[in-house]
Amino acid sequence: MTGVGLAALSGLIGGGTLLIGAAVAWFVRIPQRVTAGILAFGAGVLIATLAFELVLEAADDGGPVPTSIGFIAGAIVYIIADWLVSRPPQPAEHRPANVVARRSSARLAGGPGAAIAIGALIDGIPESIVMGLSVVHGGISIPIVAAVAISNFPEGLGSTAELKRGGATAGAVGLLWGGIALATIVASVVGYLAFQSASPFVVALTTATAAGALLAMICNTMIPEAFEKQQMLTGLWATLGFLGAFLLHLVGG
Asked: What angle, 0 to 180 degrees and rounded to 10, lies between the N-to-C axes of helices 200-217 and 113-136?
């Protein structure tokens, strides 16, 4: 299979779990605590992938300077974009005080479809670019693709459950997540094509930027949403996810 095909396959696997999660949520009633446990597990997987795949790879490619610059820049960009998307429409005095309520009101529960889509894309585009970059480095990265797929499943699951409760139609939900899944495939291919001949500095900067954005997303979104329902078990599920991804890294390395 060509590099473009491998990049597209990576995006299909990673983004396809959004559709699977959405389908499960539409046809099956999933307890919120189960969804939260999956979310915490996915957060642990992503943290291990950031530590052992993305940041180390960026440092090996370009050294500590582009890695540090990109990592900080990625976090800042994600936080700003997340704040812009997640701001609720209510007056300031009525806005929810905590992060989970803020995101739920703006991104999930009854929020406009555009806001939901943009929020998912903020998470998905850096992940997809990294999957494309991994193909440049020698083929599909199983730890990275697995981490993205695992983390996307609860997002599709939880978001669709809230949309269904808000009265969204099956066609609208399918079109929404289908479009986002398609965008992840396109972003993976673009990540592969755009960085084949890029300098090590640019590749390191891009990889670290995506890593920083993902870490900020984990801290701002996945962990708080999981802790709201799982409480003390959040740390256990995240630890298991981290361990699983670490073992994948050892096998893949």
From this structure: 140
